[in-house]
Amino acid sequence: MTKLITVEALDFVYPDGTPALFDINLENETEEFIAFIGQNGSGKTTLSKCMNGLLKPTKGRIIVDDLDTRQRGIIKQLVTKVGYVFQNPDHQLFNRSVWAEIAYGPNNIGLSQSEVKERVIEAAQVAGVHDDVFDTHPYFLDKGLRQRVAIASILALRPKTIIVDEPTTGQDVRQSIEVMNFLKRLRDEEGHTIIIITHEMRIVADYAERTVVLGQGRKLLDGPTREVFSQPEILKQTFVEPPQITQLGQALVEEGLPHDALSVEEMKAAFKKNSAE
Amino acid sequence: MDPAIVFRDLQWRYEHRKNFALKGINLEIGKNDFIGVVGPNEHGKTTLVSAISGLIPHSYNGIYKGSIEVFGKKVFDSDALELATNVGIVFSDPESQFTAMTVEEELAFGLENMGFELAKIRERIEWAAEITLIQDLLDKSPYDISGGQKQRVAIACVLAMDPPIIIMDEPTSMIDPLGKNLIFEILRRLKEASEHTLIVVEHNVEQLAPLADKMLLMYEGLVDRYLPTKEFFADPSYLQARGVLAPESTEFVQWLIAEKALPASIDLPLDLAGGIEATHQALQRRSSS
Predict the structure, then answer these.
(1) Mutation test of the interface with chain B: which of A37, A40, A213, A265, choosing the one with the most B Cβ atoms within 10 A?
(2) Which secondary structure element, helix H or strand E, spans residue B11, and what is its range?
(3) Based on CB atoms within 10 Å of each CB, which residue in A11, A271, B103, B110 is the most buried?
(4) Helices (H), strands (E): how many in chain A?
(5) Cβ contact, residue pair A40, B244, below 8 Å
(6) Cβ pair A245:B249 closer than 8 A
(7) Cβ-based interface (< 8 Å): residues of A facing B
(8) Taking the domains of chain B in order of start, what are their residue ranges?
(9) HEC states along B173-208?
(10) B247 and A202: CB-CB below 8 Å?
């Protein structure tokens, strides 16, 4: 495991004086799957934008692969290290064709035309964007595919860390599973570190091994998802509830059920084991 | 009692689409029932509710066969005033329906158009603002408030018109957990008052199920299942195959019944409290046997 991003004693205050983050310390390594959770306004998106250099720390510092994000003129290097996919792909897509959209980043960092072509083809393939839509205007694609084009345009820069803001909002159960399995494959097969920002606790329980909880600009918890969901009192401070099945176990701990089951399947196994004893 | 809404073999195909979005809907919705509508995207949920509100066929082009009656009158033959009087609809993107400079003007807009007197307008606005917890937002611009507040304003606009049928199409899909809880609190109040027929399209089954009298599954343009909520969730694997998850408590207790840890006669719980109670019973039964 190699360290990718180190956030040290980060404070962030918006230019209008609104404080957004206080004393955040955080590290991420290669091949992690992390969830950022917490109520709106807790600082999840601000922290993500600090991590990819879009926002500069007011105090403290962020080191990405030995680069300090406060340095001038390093944005071209940063975009190849940390990618950020907007919640609404339409806020990010602006080119007239899928090809131009995916090629935009590689062109901008000054790669040769043959390298750009190679990157686009590779990124499109990984993201499941087929070549028959390369000439299509992104707005004519359905939302799931627009999101994959948005992800492909980030992948083309080959960042080790990819932050995806609310990947499942407005999606149904099957679409959510599809996009989450895709992100999991990017981690498992391509070695990316994935950070999702989400309000869906069942998604967190199913996919994220590590969860960072933010509340009012502070980091409240950071650890394995199972341990994080075992602390409902702290989660409550930022209006997060563990998945329903986790809460069911927590209410019946004295009767022998686990306080940290993450799925109905785990609870079934625990009930059976408990019966056998 | 006469039903509020009756579908008779309703079929609808949007212009320029190959397939029918609704492929023959037969359905009765009772007066003052709370109906939860679920199903995968693109399987007809929004089209179904648009047909009740009259947006289909009056605002879209396409092919319309069969009929829907709202309070005994065919939607196809109704004019805009009749439709607006009978059915109010809230979308997932509330901003798309705002036109005024303040929340209060927004609330008054529909009522002024209907020709109500000023005193009546005031009374309706006060009532709608109270239920939706937006009293302190009335003088704000509807664009300067949070996503959750915007959605509550959109609901208040519909309530102010006091239509007997209220439809909400994914009202919580764009807002955060705290905002979601407030929307479900409004739905709980409306259900308790039992003065409206409520039709709510939602992916958030865990919060919807405890409120709904009946659940309706739209699948491939048809009503695949339409049952009282407890019966609807009695077969989680059937629903899962159609992309619908039962509340986790319900799914777990259903498994306890299948494992004979609980008798089949128990009341299937739809929320966490019910799930805890039923699981507690299962643990008790086991330790006493």
Answers:
(1) A40
(2) strand B5-14
(3) B103
(4) 11, 10
(5) no
(6) yes
(7) 39-40, 169-175, 199, 202, 239-241, 243-245, 247-248, 251-252, 255-257, 264, 267-268, 271, 275
(8) 5-246
(9) CCCCHHHHHHHHHHHHHHHHHCCCEEEEECCCHHHH
(10) no
Kindly list the residues from chain B whose CB atom is less than 8 angstroms away from the CB atom of residue A168. Answer: none
ipTM score of the complex? Answer: 0.89
In whole angstroms, give the CA distance from residue A152 to residue A21: 30
pLDDT, tens digit, 9 for 90 and up, residues B214-272: 999 999 999 999 999 999 999 989 999 999 999 999 999 999 999 999 999 999 999 99
Question: Could you tell me the domains of chain A?
Answer: 3-239 (3.40.50.300), 243-277 (no CATH)
* Residue A16 Cα distances to A13, A47, A215, B26, B145, angstroms: 8, 17, 21, 56, 18
Tokens of B157: 């606009």
Global pTM value: 0.90
CATH fold of B5-246: Rossmann fold (3.40.50)
Q: Nearest to residue A243, comparing CAs of A183, A180, A211, A200? A: A200
Chain B residues inside the 8 Å CB shell of A169: 173-174
What count of other Cβ atoms lies within 10 Å of the Cβ of residue B86?
22
Do A173 and B245 count as a contact with CB atoms less than 8 A apart?
Answer: yes
